Amino acid sequence: MRGGHVCIVVSFLLLLAAVSGEFAGDYSKLSGIIIPGFASTQLRAWSILDCPYSPLDFNPLDLVWLDTTKLLSAVNCWLKCMMLDPYNQTDHRECKSRPDSGLSAITELDPGYITGPLSSVWKEWVKWCIEFGIEANAIIAVPYDWRLSPSKLEERDLYFHKLKLTFETALKLRGGPSIVFAHSLGNNVFRYFLEWLKLEIAPKEYMRWLDDHIHAYFAVGAPLLGAIETVKATLSGATFGLPVSEGTARLMFNTFGSSMWMLPFSKYCTTDNVYRRHFSGGNRENHHAYHCDEHELQSNYSGWPTNIINIEVPSIRGDEAYPSFVEIAQANLSGMECGFPTQLSFSAREVSDGTFFKAIKDYDPDSERLLHLLQKSYHDDPILNPLTPWERPPLKNIFCIYGIDSKTEVGYYFAPSGKPYPDNWIITDVIYEIEGSLYSRSGNLVEGNPGATSGDETVPYHSLSWCKNWLGPKVNITRTPQSEHDGSDVQVHRNIEHQHGEDIIPNMTRLPTVKYITYYEDSESFPGKRTAVWELDKANHRNIVRSPVLMRELWLEMWHDIHPDKKSNFVTKAKRGPLRDEDCYWDYGKARCAWPEHCEYRYLFGDVHLGQSCRLKNSTYDLLSHYV
Fold it and tell me: Name one Pfam family in it (predicted).
């Protein structure tokens, strides 16, 4: 699940422009701390590697992730620089890679005339930062080696120590708290940091440190209960668009310590509180067992829509289950007709607690390595078992944002492929959630427990929407069109009752041709704290951060937040008009610029079509005054 398209930082640029220039409010010295997602940071070589049969070698500081030229011409060398030892997460003996630093590490993964635009992450938004006059020290990227497990990030790179110093440096440099922006796996990283911080700071100082250093947390596309695609990447491989085979992708992915970090898990199972046991003098070595409540036993699929994995176990065991090429050629498979494969099904809990990997241990050579990684780096982690539900972080302002209503994978059927490892499994069917129903790949309706809607094409709705549990017992719900609107199609329901652990399903209408954004807001349940959940129709996991709609909403929310004369806890949703010249366009039906009260036709040299000549009448500052 790549977090490479985490480009909503444009909103950071806009809101920081608002607070660093003429729009300054109480938080005029905010900083933006960006935690990128999976595979969203450049990795560079820290070795000298001679690649035989290829004119391209690897030298120190050469780009490894992502250099498609070397990937195509010297894939074996490239794999040496990418793969880790699955048992101790050390580098290959011939090549090591380390994450790049600064904003340059997250702008373009593979710079180049052709490859640059294709791998662009935040480059265009850095340009926006410059155009809006943002200071260079106001946007801080915190790249990390996304191949490592959380404990290894700290052990090898002191990542969380450095992240703490980043917050403290930003406060000293800018004079105010920071806005944390995380996408995809970056949210898991931030969660681990908050738990790690509890053991680094005196208990009485923990809350004060958070209040002083973190003003708001924006969680975009957070896989709060894991992601189903992780299972596919583990068993059959996921190329993410790279020019490699699925088997090669699987071989590489399963050496990463982070491969288990996004496994789907049950919302009904938890572990003991490490923080409490640490300060009570309890034994920190024996608290890792799962504790599941009665709902886990009563539910069919650990609360998920269906079983995560359905797999046919071959009728042969051990090495014969994944033979070599020579063995395949010499084998007499006629005896297989006498045996019938057994189909086994596994829920999210059985995937995350290792039951699934134990069951296929005799049929797959990766299972033993993955079990070791799962136990050592996750279940036995001294700080946190990340494969447990996340309660609301103790932060002042939290905004959980994700896309819904897209076709999303929620279950797989696997069977032996008859090929050698790493291509020994094949996907025979896929279960999708689509608009509140479950369907197979062939289009047949499947029984299960579908949610009210579907996910964002990558992370299922069940996982994305877990943050609704961070809302209190009374929630205000607003649904508006995503596009600019005059307020005629705005629906508001106030003080809707919400039971913890239950989904909130608004009883609101929607037009089939309109994309909506639904806001769930709570500023009363936790004194001094605000929580909001935003659901964007048809927003793709990888592209949601490119959405100008989300950019606009983040900008308006933070503009409202810092304004000394604000009249409500959240920005008004009554109407949305253009805020930038780019939002104005030509209405060919009326032969004039759309939104005539805000936009006018004003030709400038270089405009090539009518829409480019439509520009704002007033300054952005005047337009923003309507949203206080």
Answer: LCAT
